[in-house]
Amino acid sequence: MLYREIFRVLGSYLYIFSLVLFVPLLVAIYYQFIAAPEAHPQPHSTLAFLQTVIICCGLGAVFRQLGRRATGELYRREGLFLVVIIWFISAAIGGLPFYLSGTLKSPVDAYFEAMSGLTTTGATVMHPKDFTDDDDQEEIPIYRLIRGPYQTDYTYAGTIDPVRDSESGLIIYSGVEAVSKGVLFWRSFMQWLGGMGIVVLFIAILPALGVGGKVLFQAEVPGPTKDAVTPRIQETAGLLWKLYLGLSVIEVVLLMVTNPAIDWFEAVTMTFSNLSTGGFSVRNASVGSFESPATEWVVIIFMVVGSINFALYFYCLKRQFYRLVDPEFIIYIVALLIASVFVSWNLIGEQIALLTGEMIECDVSTAFRQGFFHLISAQTSTGFATSDFDQWHPGNQVVMLTVMYIGSMAGSTGGGIKIIRHYMLYKIVKNKIEQIFRPDTVRAVRVGNKEISSSVGLTVLSYYMIVIILSSAGVFFLVLDGMDPETALAVNACMINNIGMAFRVAGPTESFAFLSIFGKILSTLWMVLGRLEFFAVLVVLAPAFWKKN
Asked: Is residue 143 in some structural domain?
């Protein structure tokens, strides 16, 4: 292992990451020193971000010093290790503002929140604290009961201190709405960075890394194939980020034009979490708090936009529209429509609870808006919600849980297994069945006009085996940790597919604050495994990886 090369790249990366941290630092400075005091009664976080920048720069200087004699050569082994270690280090640095600002008192909670942001999972441990109703207003534990064949009691503490009126002492903000604007901005900004990939951003900014640049790119970009849209990896990375930025600007404008009640802060943070298919919100009731069908439809459109292979946008800009006749794209859109119509149809005439607390009866238009919103939120791995889907018909919940695993398109910001893998598996199984009664027939596995090599096919089958094993193991460990099976199944699906939405005690009206320390550590590992699609992390964990050739 060429450690000096690794230290050199890590040092450069941390310098760039410290520059990224200046963005939320400026937001925190604005709300503390420029905006009107009534615009930000929440605790300020300027000092926390300043301290984080200093720590990040200091670590960068240490790593650059350790790698000062590096020759500039980066090979596959070092590239794979760099991708994995960059994600874990980024979450550690990214979690510092949560911890140093006092927003989250536990380092484990801060790390969980940061990893959830960077991996675009969107699972949060930010939960309002409960207090007694008497004059003392003492904090009390939160109690939840999950009824059913495996009735389970959950008792845990809230994580977010409320903002109280200075005169009356009454709570005026609680939950995420009681958190510093700078911290909330950073939380959503991390999702935006992680959506396209922090390593891909690094490649786009840093001068060419030679062989290592391609290894880094292929290790982070999701999907079984890693085709670049241009001959040079650095050019591809830069182009993808330009497209990503352009689409983000378009969504911000549309949100503010279609809903004047949305200010720039809400529009930007919602876009960061939406286009990245992340799901963090700056309001307790998520997107439902705006009570605007227009806002919900804009969010629906950009959830789909973020879940489509970004290479298709590049081809459309080049007027190569024939590229849209792509099996993965067609199957994905059809699957979204069929599942969305199924869920919507089951909602017609049903009473549902909005996250704002209001009960409504779904007419046809409301049912289709709610059904499309939540099904697409689940399949694209966004995790936004407007109503309590944990109270919906079990059939709808099963469909939503299923599409979490089905996932979106490869090369997108979405999570899940990816449509292309399902299509490849279908072709592989179809060919195998045909070979049973036609053993002399030799057929190549093709996706569109491309022939899929046996090595790619084996990788796809291995991927499915890994998903099955880790999903089973995750549920098993969570149940052993005291979680009821239904919640454990939903939480595991949430983490491994980077969704952010789950059921039962982790439903849309709750959070993941109920997880034990073990549950949070396991979930954090599952998040990064799912975001890097298992292989990069598992390779680094293999003993043979560390042996000298």
From this structure: yes
